[in-house]
Amino acid sequence: MTTERLRQQVLSTPHTAMIIFSDISISYLSGFTGHAATVLLTDKANYLITDYRYVEQAEKEAHDYIVISRDRANQSLASLLTEIIIKDSCQSVSFECEQVTVAQWHDVKQAIAAQGITEFTPIYQSVEKLRRVKNSEELNAIRQAAAIADQALANILPLVKVGITEKELANELDYQMAKLGSEELSFATILLFGERSAMPHGVPSSRALNHGDIILIDFGAVINGYRSDMTRTFIFGEASEQQREIYQLVQNAQQAAIDAVKAGVRGDAIYQESANILQASKYKEFAGEGLGHGVGLQLHEQPFLGPDCHYEMELGCVVTIEPGIYIPGWGGIRIEDDVVLNEHGLEIITQSPKALTVL
């Protein structure tokens, strides 16, 4: 149980309470998928505080939690938290410091301190660190999301023709993912033509497709809250020698990183395998920073694969591998896959073909 894992890591001392504020953390710990909630963990029990709008949903989803419906008109969150902390004889409080506003924490801390509790410990990304390793249910959701994205991409490729705009093709891709069962977009679809593909996170525009254009598509689907993330790059019409050269360079860099993903290998070492290839090329000044990131309930989560990543890969860790070359005024080429380490080795979750395709 994820809540117990958190208890072992953070609530190791007796009489300590922990307050969780973020929706993502609460969903991961309790199973509650609504909003307007706060979780309080004490020695005595797990509490989920919400209001009348979500109390029935919380009681159905958060099975290991005592669900409390707060009367927002007559009781502040600060006073209710304090009431429970005093009732459960807590002597210190840990809190999810990166997920609470200054104003909200000021009220909570002031109310608790008024009862004689003065030990407050900020915790940094404790839940996020737990989320690095996915269980079988989480992995199956990511696989389903990736399969939807794979099929949606295959469904829109026949629509590629001269004159279609980035927005039109992106809208069709989004529609196909929804039609195939995606709960929402993993993130706003990035679909760019020609020279605009040099923007790693560009927004689809009315730019129309021409012969010889690069088509860069970065997108994902969502199942049970879990996300996929994939980038494919195509050429419309005949590919130039430079397009083929850069595509092969990026593909080689990605494959080198994929080959390096093994249990116990640090993220910076995986990054370096890719960087060595890109930095040895004549396009090194146009190489994107970083290599990839964890993906799950959030699009970008730990670990972040780069020169400062000291995390050692574990079984169940899902990461993206996405090197790219971005040349202003010319275009960009990125290839991205979601991969996971399992008991059989490395699994590439995203399955769309990666060989350079000329449409």
From TrEMBL:
SUPFAM superfamilies per the UniProt record, alphabetical: Creatinase/aminopeptidase (SSF55920), Creatinase/prolidase N-terminal domain (SSF53092)
> What sequence ranges are listed for the domain Peptidase M24?
141-342
Instruction: Check the record and name the InterPro entries matching this protein.
Output: Creatin/AminoP/Spt16_N (IPR029149), Creatinase/aminopeptidase-like (IPR036005), Creatinase_N (IPR000587), Pept_M24 (IPR000994), Pept_M24_MAP (IPR001714), Peptidase_M24B (IPR050659)
Highest taxon listed in the record's lineage: Bacteria
For the Creatinase N-terminal domain, which residue ranges apply?
5-133
Query: Which GO molecular-function terms appear in the entry?
Result: aminopeptidase activity; metalloexopeptidase activity
What PANTHER family would the database entry show? AMINOPEPTIDASE (PTHR46112), AMINOPEPTIDASE YPDF (PTHR46112:SF3)
Q: What is this protein called?
A: M24 family metallopeptidase
This chain's source organism reads Litorilituus lipolyticus
